[in-house]
Design goal:
single chain, Farnesyl Diphosphate Synthase, 2 domains
Length: about 350
């Protein structure tokens, strides 16, 4: 499953320029003809450095076709794995995934890229109101005009979308977590809803598949937390390592601020990586329950999350000196493996049919 947060800061998993400021009272009144160009130019709002996703969050769509083009361009320009996902997904689902991705991307930007917690909360509250208007049939903003088609097509309830907005609001209020259980509770809003949205689009609504999806999504979120310890603290003043785990291994907040690596820190990250791996194991039980046409796409996310954990291990659990990342070659291998698994599934299906 995709990571709902797409992990800030740095946005290497969905690169968006850092915001200087965004004034939503003078937000862009027209959708750009080319989103990537608008991103580079700073857009009509004049907010230099502002992401197009945030600046056009509330911009009306001239037509449904324009709204769909907007979400496609947003996915293509901000989601580095979009071309891979497009190849692995059934053609009839690609636009739906673009629409959902656009919602997540914009909501995330409104929470993380607007300076000042109060202003971010106001923007998220407005975004929630737009979502409710969407479900009431009166959507105007481009992202919601596009999303409404996906909602109606797949009969998606409002709750996963509301949960995501609540998670972005929580980020403005809560910067530390006392226990692992509190952190996992946060993930029920920040990560798990995205997996459930994917299941709805793929035609699944049962609790068994949702449970397995939740395990994968939470594990993905946690893997990103362990990967981004230094950057989350330096850029967002957030620490996702649970306080009880830090105390157990003798790691202090000051040590994190100083980026001081020692055996205690390595042991802490190893502990968190190991229990995150077990969540991926539980989440893998979802794959045999999926149709082969979507299984390879969904498998790619779990594979990617495990690869992040392996990258952390290769650095001997040092996520303070440098951020563990996947190379382009490693990402290509993951995509090739997922594609190969899909091809093998098709061949096996053809063989069973022939027999």
């Amino acid at each position: 499953m995709p990571d709902a947060r797409a992990r800030h800061p740095g946005k290497e998993s969905s690169p968006i320029s850092e915001l200087a400021s965004v004034n939503f009272d003078v937000a862009s009144s027209e959708l750009p003809h080319n989103l990537e160009s608008a991103e580079s130019a700073g857009g009509a709002s004049g907010a230099s450095g502002a992401s197009a996703a945030a600046r056009f969050a509330f911009t009306p769509a001239p037509s449904a076709a324009d709204a769909l083009q907007f979400t496609r361009e947003l996915a293509e320009s901000h989601y580095e794995n979009f071309s891979v996902v497009s190849l692995l997904l059934p053609a009839e689902l690609r636009q739906d995934f673009c629409n959902i991705y656009a919602f997540c991307r914009i909501a995330d930007d409104l929470g993380d890229e607007i300076p000042g917690g109060d202003e971010a909360l106001q923007a998220l509250d407005r975004f929630r109101a737009e979502l409710r208007d969407c479900y009431a049939g009166s959507a105007s903003a481009a992202v919601f005009v596009a999303l409404k088609q996906t909602i109606d097509k797949h009969q998606i309830p409002i709750d996963p979308f509301l949960d995501l907005i609540a998670a972005f609001e929580q980020d403005q209020r809560i910067k530390r977590y006392d226990t692992f259980e509190q952190l996992c509770d946060y993930c029920t809003r920040s990560a798990n809803p995205v997996g459930r949205l994917v299941l709805y689009v793929c035609g699944y609504r049962d609790t068994q598949r949702q449970h397995c999806s939740d395990q994968t999504c939470t594990a993905l979120q946690l893997a990103n937390f362990w990967q981004d310890v230094r950057r989350d603290l330096a850029d967002l003043d957030r620490i996702y390592l649970p306080k009880d785990s830090m105390a157990r291994f003798g790691v202090t907040e000051q040590q994190l601020r100083d980026s001081r690596l020692d055996d205690n820190y390595r042991a802490l990250i190893k502990f968190e990586v190991d229990r995150t791996e077990k969540m991926f194991d539980e989440g893998d039980k979802l794959l045999p329950m999926l149709d082969p046409t979507v299984r390879r796409h969904i498998a790619l996310f779990g594979m990617g999350g495990r690869a992040v954990l392996e990258a952390i291990r290769r650095q001997d659990f040092d996520t303070l000196s440098r951020r563990p990342t996947l190379s382009s070659i490693q990402k290509g291998k993951l995509a090739a493996r997922a594609a190969a698994n899909g091809l093998l599934g098709k061949l096996a299906g053809a063989r069973r049919t022939a027999l």
